[in-house]
Amino acid sequence: MTALTEKKIELNLLTLIIIGLVFILILFGGYKLYDYKVSKLTAKIDTEVKLRNALIDSVKYYTNSRNEVVAEKLTLQADIKTLTTINDKLSLNQQELIKRVKEIEKSNTIIAAALVQTNVILDSMRNASNVIVDTIHNNIAFSDSTKDVKYNILVSNVKPFDNKTKPELKIQDLVLPNKTYIQFFWGKKTDGYPTTFSVTNSNPYFHTNNIDSYTIPELDKKVIKPNGWQKIGNFFKKSSNMFITVGVGVIVGAGATYLIVK
User: Fold this and answer.
1) Range scoring the smallest mean pLDDT among 139-143, 151-155, 157-161
2) In what side-by-side order are the strands of the sheet with 139-145?
3) What pLDDT digit, counting tens, does each position of 73-124 carry?
4) Could you tell me if 117 and 190 lie in one domain?
5) Which residue in 124, 117, 118 sits closest to 148, CA to CA?
6) Among 175, 194, 210, which residue terminates a domain?
7) Rounded to whole angstroms, how far apart are CA atoms 180 and 66?
8) How many structural domains are present in the chain?
9) Is the pTM of this model over 0.70?
Protein backbone atom coordinates (compact mmCIF):
# COMPACT_ATOMS: atom_id res chain seq x y z
CA MET A 1 0.00 0.00 0.00
CA THR A 2 1.45 3.33 -1.06
CA ALA A 3 1.78 6.38 1.21
CA LEU A 4 -0.78 8.23 -0.91
CA THR A 5 -3.33 5.45 -0.46
CA GLU A 6 -2.78 5.39 3.29
CA LYS A 7 -3.23 9.15 3.44
CA LYS A 8 -6.54 8.90 1.54
CA ILE A 9 -7.76 6.18 3.90
CA GLU A 10 -6.87 8.33 6.91
CA LEU A 11 -8.69 11.33 5.41
CA ASN A 12 -11.75 9.24 4.60
CA LEU A 13 -11.76 7.83 8.14
CA LEU A 14 -11.46 11.31 9.61
CA THR A 15 -14.27 12.52 7.37
CA LEU A 16 -16.50 9.66 8.51
CA ILE A 17 -15.72 10.45 12.15
CA ILE A 18 -16.60 14.14 11.65
CA ILE A 19 -19.82 13.25 9.82
CA GLY A 20 -20.72 10.79 12.60
CA LEU A 21 -20.09 13.38 15.30
CA VAL A 22 -22.13 16.00 13.43
CA PHE A 23 -24.97 13.49 13.02
CA ILE A 24 -24.88 12.62 16.75
CA LEU A 25 -24.84 16.30 17.70
CA ILE A 26 -27.79 17.00 15.39
CA LEU A 27 -29.75 14.16 17.00
CA PHE A 28 -28.76 15.28 20.48
CA GLY A 29 -29.55 18.91 19.67
CA GLY A 30 -32.95 17.86 18.36
CA TYR A 31 -33.62 15.95 21.56
CA LYS A 32 -32.52 18.95 23.64
CA LEU A 33 -34.87 21.22 21.70
CA TYR A 34 -37.73 18.74 22.13
CA ASP A 35 -36.96 18.33 25.85
CA TYR A 36 -36.83 22.11 26.30
CA LYS A 37 -40.23 22.60 24.64
CA VAL A 38 -41.79 19.74 26.65
CA SER A 39 -40.31 21.07 29.91
CA LYS A 40 -41.53 24.58 29.14
CA LEU A 41 -45.03 23.34 28.31
CA THR A 42 -45.10 21.13 31.43
CA ALA A 43 -43.98 24.04 33.62
CA LYS A 44 -46.67 26.26 32.11
CA ILE A 45 -49.38 23.65 32.75
CA ASP A 46 -48.12 23.06 36.32
CA THR A 47 -48.18 26.81 37.02
CA GLU A 48 -51.73 27.14 35.66
CA VAL A 49 -52.95 24.16 37.74
CA LYS A 50 -51.30 25.48 40.91
CA LEU A 51 -52.76 28.95 40.35
CA ARG A 52 -56.25 27.56 39.69
CA ASN A 53 -56.13 25.44 42.85
CA ALA A 54 -54.88 28.40 44.89
CA LEU A 55 -57.69 30.63 43.63
CA ILE A 56 -60.40 28.19 44.76
CA ASP A 57 -58.69 27.16 48.00
CA SER A 58 -59.98 28.21 51.42
CA VAL A 59 -58.39 28.37 54.86
CA LYS A 60 -58.00 25.01 56.56
CA TYR A 61 -57.58 24.72 60.34
CA TYR A 62 -55.95 21.97 62.35
CA THR A 63 -54.21 21.55 65.73
CA ASN A 64 -50.47 20.90 65.83
CA SER A 65 -48.42 18.94 68.38
CA ARG A 66 -48.20 22.05 70.60
CA ASN A 67 -51.99 22.16 70.81
CA GLU A 68 -52.00 25.37 68.75
CA VAL A 69 -54.47 26.10 65.96
CA VAL A 70 -52.80 26.29 62.54
CA ALA A 71 -54.41 28.12 59.60
CA GLU A 72 -53.20 26.89 56.20
CA LYS A 73 -53.90 27.90 52.59
CA LEU A 74 -52.34 27.45 49.13
CA THR A 75 -50.12 30.26 47.84
CA LEU A 76 -50.60 32.32 44.68
CA GLN A 77 -47.53 31.36 42.67
CA ALA A 78 -47.33 33.28 39.39
CA ASP A 79 -45.76 36.41 37.97
CA ILE A 80 -47.38 39.74 38.86
CA LYS A 81 -48.37 40.39 35.24
CA THR A 82 -50.46 37.20 35.15
CA LEU A 83 -52.12 37.97 38.48
CA THR A 84 -52.92 41.51 37.32
CA THR A 85 -54.72 40.21 34.22
CA ILE A 86 -57.00 38.02 36.37
CA ASN A 87 -57.60 40.68 39.02
CA ASP A 88 -61.38 40.25 38.75
CA LYS A 89 -61.02 36.58 39.77
CA LEU A 90 -59.12 37.46 42.96
CA SER A 91 -60.77 37.99 46.33
CA LEU A 92 -60.58 41.43 47.95
CA ASN A 93 -57.85 40.20 50.29
CA GLN A 94 -55.87 38.77 47.35
CA GLN A 95 -56.28 42.01 45.39
CA GLU A 96 -54.92 44.02 48.32
CA LEU A 97 -51.97 41.59 48.64
CA ILE A 98 -51.02 41.91 44.95
CA LYS A 99 -51.44 45.69 45.14
CA ARG A 100 -48.99 45.84 48.05
CA VAL A 101 -46.52 43.58 46.22
CA LYS A 102 -46.65 45.80 43.12
CA GLU A 103 -46.01 48.89 45.25
CA ILE A 104 -42.92 47.35 46.85
CA GLU A 105 -41.71 45.90 43.53
CA LYS A 106 -41.01 49.48 42.38
CA SER A 107 -38.13 49.77 44.86
CA ASN A 108 -37.27 46.16 45.71
CA THR A 109 -37.68 42.60 44.45
CA ILE A 110 -40.30 40.52 46.25
CA ILE A 111 -39.68 36.80 46.76
CA ALA A 112 -42.65 36.05 49.02
CA ALA A 113 -45.37 38.02 50.80
CA ALA A 114 -48.50 37.36 52.82
CA LEU A 115 -51.55 39.22 54.08
CA VAL A 116 -53.11 37.85 57.27
CA GLN A 117 -56.44 38.83 58.83
CA THR A 118 -56.59 38.14 62.56
CA ASN A 119 -59.19 38.85 65.22
CA VAL A 120 -58.93 38.72 69.00
CA ILE A 121 -61.93 36.82 70.33
CA LEU A 122 -62.72 36.88 74.06
CA ASP A 123 -65.89 34.82 73.97
CA SER A 124 -65.57 33.52 77.53
CA MET A 125 -63.34 35.00 80.21
CA ARG A 126 -64.16 34.91 83.90
CA ASN A 127 -62.19 36.58 86.62
CA ALA A 128 -60.90 34.05 89.11
CA SER A 129 -57.89 35.79 90.53
CA ASN A 130 -57.43 39.10 92.34
CA VAL A 131 -60.54 41.07 93.30
CA ILE A 132 -60.13 44.13 95.50
CA VAL A 133 -63.22 45.86 96.93
CA ASP A 134 -62.68 49.45 98.03
CA THR A 135 -65.68 50.41 100.17
CA ILE A 136 -64.25 53.87 100.89
CA HIS A 137 -64.00 54.96 97.25
CA ASN A 138 -66.75 52.61 96.05
CA ASN A 139 -64.45 50.80 93.58
CA ILE A 140 -63.85 47.20 92.61
CA ALA A 141 -60.60 46.19 90.93
CA PHE A 142 -60.27 43.00 88.88
CA SER A 143 -56.84 41.79 87.77
CA ASP A 144 -55.32 38.61 86.44
CA SER A 145 -52.15 37.45 84.70
CA THR A 146 -51.80 34.19 82.78
CA LYS A 147 -49.82 33.13 79.72
CA ASP A 148 -52.78 34.03 77.47
CA VAL A 149 -54.19 37.22 78.97
CA LYS A 150 -53.23 39.97 81.38
CA TYR A 151 -55.64 42.65 82.55
CA ASN A 152 -56.41 45.18 85.25
CA ILE A 153 -59.99 46.47 85.27
CA LEU A 154 -61.36 49.06 87.66
CA VAL A 155 -65.12 49.41 88.20
CA SER A 156 -66.18 52.66 89.87
CA ASN A 157 -69.32 53.82 91.71
CA VAL A 158 -70.59 50.37 92.57
CA LYS A 159 -71.39 51.09 96.20
CA PRO A 160 -73.62 52.61 97.28
CA PHE A 161 -75.84 52.28 94.27
CA ASP A 162 -78.81 54.52 93.44
CA ASN A 163 -80.54 55.83 90.34
CA LYS A 164 -78.52 59.05 90.35
CA THR A 165 -75.13 57.32 90.27
CA LYS A 166 -74.04 55.68 87.01
CA PRO A 167 -71.66 52.68 87.25
CA GLU A 168 -68.40 53.06 85.34
CA LEU A 169 -66.00 50.50 83.88
CA LYS A 170 -62.39 51.45 83.27
CA ILE A 171 -59.90 49.05 81.69
CA GLN A 172 -56.61 50.08 83.16
CA ASP A 173 -54.54 47.42 81.46
CA LEU A 174 -55.25 44.59 78.99
CA VAL A 175 -52.45 42.59 77.38
CA LEU A 176 -52.80 39.52 75.16
CA PRO A 177 -49.34 37.97 74.71
CA ASN A 178 -49.00 36.13 71.42
CA LYS A 179 -46.35 34.61 69.19
CA THR A 180 -47.19 34.22 65.50
CA TYR A 181 -45.30 31.55 63.58
CA ILE A 182 -45.53 31.64 59.77
CA GLN A 183 -44.05 29.28 57.21
CA PHE A 184 -43.94 28.60 53.49
CA PHE A 185 -43.58 24.97 52.44
CA TRP A 186 -44.17 22.69 49.48
CA GLY A 187 -47.35 20.65 49.38
CA LYS A 188 -47.95 17.09 48.22
CA LYS A 189 -46.12 15.45 45.33
CA THR A 190 -49.42 14.36 43.78
CA ASP A 191 -50.43 18.03 43.50
CA GLY A 192 -47.14 19.05 41.88
CA TYR A 193 -45.52 20.40 45.07
CA PRO A 194 -47.60 23.60 45.34
CA THR A 195 -46.31 26.31 47.67
CA THR A 196 -48.41 26.51 50.86
CA PHE A 197 -48.52 29.14 53.60
CA SER A 198 -49.54 28.66 57.22
CA VAL A 199 -50.01 30.85 60.30
CA THR A 200 -49.89 29.62 63.90
CA ASN A 201 -50.78 31.73 66.95
CA SER A 202 -49.62 30.69 70.40
CA ASN A 203 -52.51 32.50 72.08
CA PRO A 204 -55.90 30.75 71.64
CA TYR A 205 -57.70 34.12 71.83
CA PHE A 206 -56.15 35.03 68.46
CA HIS A 207 -58.12 33.66 65.52
CA THR A 208 -56.86 33.81 61.93
CA ASN A 209 -59.85 34.69 59.75
CA ASN A 210 -58.13 34.64 56.38
CA ILE A 211 -54.68 34.37 54.85
CA ASP A 212 -53.42 35.00 51.33
CA SER A 213 -49.84 34.69 50.19
CA TYR A 214 -47.69 35.17 47.10
CA THR A 215 -44.38 33.75 45.90
CA ILE A 216 -42.47 34.12 42.66
CA PRO A 217 -42.96 31.19 40.25
CA GLU A 218 -39.20 30.47 40.28
CA LEU A 219 -39.54 28.89 43.75
CA ASP A 220 -39.80 25.41 42.23
CA LYS A 221 -39.03 22.42 44.46
CA LYS A 222 -37.67 20.42 41.51
CA VAL A 223 -34.97 23.06 41.07
CA ILE A 224 -34.34 24.36 44.62
CA LYS A 225 -34.67 21.13 46.63
CA PRO A 226 -34.98 18.14 44.26
CA ASN A 227 -35.42 14.57 45.42
CA GLY A 228 -33.23 11.67 44.28
CA TRP A 229 -34.77 11.15 40.82
CA GLN A 230 -35.02 14.88 40.21
CA LYS A 231 -31.31 15.25 41.04
CA ILE A 232 -30.49 12.58 38.44
CA GLY A 233 -32.64 14.35 35.85
CA ASN A 234 -31.01 17.70 36.60
CA PHE A 235 -27.56 16.07 36.35
CA PHE A 236 -28.29 14.68 32.88
CA LYS A 237 -29.60 18.06 31.73
CA LYS A 238 -26.42 19.78 32.88
CA SER A 239 -24.24 16.98 31.46
CA SER A 240 -25.96 17.24 28.07
CA ASN A 241 -24.89 20.87 27.75
CA MET A 242 -21.31 19.85 28.53
CA PHE A 243 -21.55 17.02 25.98
CA ILE A 244 -22.62 19.43 23.24
CA THR A 245 -19.78 21.81 24.11
CA VAL A 246 -17.22 18.99 24.05
CA GLY A 247 -18.69 17.60 20.83
CA VAL A 248 -18.44 20.95 19.07
CA GLY A 249 -14.83 21.24 20.29
CA VAL A 250 -14.01 17.78 18.93
CA ILE A 251 -15.55 18.58 15.55
CA VAL A 252 -13.69 21.87 15.31
CA GLY A 253 -10.44 20.15 16.27
CA ALA A 254 -11.02 17.31 13.83
CA GLY A 255 -11.88 19.77 11.09
CA ALA A 256 -8.71 21.72 11.73
CA THR A 257 -6.70 18.49 11.65
CA TYR A 258 -8.38 17.52 8.39
CA LEU A 259 -7.42 20.80 6.75
CA ILE A 260 -3.84 20.54 7.99
CA VAL A 261 -3.43 16.94 6.82
CA LYS A 262 -5.08 17.69 3.49
Assistant:
1) 157-161
2) 130-134, 139-145, 150-156, 168-175
3) 999 998 888 899 999 999 999 999 999 999 888 777 888 999 999 988 776 6
4) yes
5) 124
6) 175
7) 13
8) 3
9) no
